[in-house]
Specification:
The protein is mainly alpha-helical and about 270 residues long. The chain contains 11 helices and no strands. It has helices spanning about 1-20, 40-45, 50-80, 85-100, 105-120, 130-155, 160-165, 170-200, 200-205, 215-225, 230-270. The longest helix has about 45 residues, at about 230-270. The model has no long low-confidence stretch (mean pLDDT about 85).
Length: about 270
């Protein structure tokens, strides 16, 4: 089983390791490592078009993350407060649709909607930054909802009721009691939304206009000619940023698990006494 697991991991990470190694190669070759160099990183930071695409991607991902996190948290709280189980099932099913729906179907359908609305209002161009932002918020929302909703279900709602009995308004009780309890889920959902938006190509390709280009779209355009090794350097940077976000996510989950175990031990100790 260990050998089999090792083979699987080698198969998964070998391409990434090759990419990391040859991003420091002096030559363009992907078969011969001539010498260690930061040449391609230097060329990357001198490429204005690529840096502009990277800036667009980061701005888009941050905007989509902020909006989808706020909307997803509110939606999760609304679903949590629904009392009827069949109502909750409907909401959960609807929320699942953007996650299980193929990206190409989502991208084409949203493009058609944006073009239709644009022509309806007589707009010169139907696709722009705002259309791609709406599209990214749409497919990021379910991931935020399904990260926040379990935290709400794990929370002891009697704490909120106690806060209201002590004089808190419902809104203040939410910010003082509910929000700190579900914050790990919000952070995890925000991290997932950011990485999904940063990585998306298919939906971005169909919903972006000519005046706004994300990094995946630019890299796709380069594949029609040739992908220079400076793209390996950029991929290396993105890989380490993603790894840092993943580690942060794991640290938050581990911290939450430890706190949950400590609470259970305290409850058991109190019950024995």
């Amino acid at each position: 089983s260990k050998i089999y697991t090792g083979i699987i991991f080698a198969f998964l990470f070998a391409p990434i390791i090759v990419l990391l190694i040859f991003s420091f190669n002096e030559a363009k070759s992907l078969s011969v490592f001539s010498s260690f160099s930061f040449k391609w990183y230097t060329e990357l930071f001198n490429d204005r078009d690529t840096l502009e695409s990277l800036k667009n991607t980061v701005v888009l991902a941050l905007a989509a993350t902020v909006i989808s996190t706020a909307m997803g948290t509110a939606a999760a709280f609304g679903i949590y407060r629904v009392r009827r189980n069949w109502y909750k099932s409907i909401f959960n099913t609807v929320t699942n649709i953007p996650m299980i729906n193929p990206d190409i179907i989502t991208g084409i359908s949203m493009m058609l909607v944006f073009v239709f609305v644009g022509r309806l209002f007589g707009m010169a161009t139907s696709l722009n930054f705002w259309t791609i932002l709406i599209a990214h918020v749409t497919f990021c929302l379910p991931y935020v909802i399904f990260q926040v909703l379990p935290k709400l279900q794990q929370m002891d709602y009697s704490l909120v009721e106690a806060a209201q009995d002590l004089g808190c308004t419902p809104i203040r009780a939410f910010f003082k009691v509910t929000l700190p309890e579900i914050m790990p889920g919000i952070i995890t959902g925000a991290i997932m939304a950011f990485t999904l938006s940063l990585d998306d190509f298919v939906i971005s390709y169909f919903t972006s206009g000519n005046d706004f280009q994300t990094l995946p779209i630019r890299i796709y355009g380069m594949t029609k000619k040739t992908v220079t090794p400076k793209m390996y350097a950029l991929a290396t940077i993105i890989f380490f940023v993603t790894m840092a976000l993943l580690l942060l996510n794991n640290i938050i989950d581990n911290k939450e698990s430890r706190e949950l175990r400590e609470k259970r031990k305290q409850l058991k100790g109190g019950a024995k006494k």
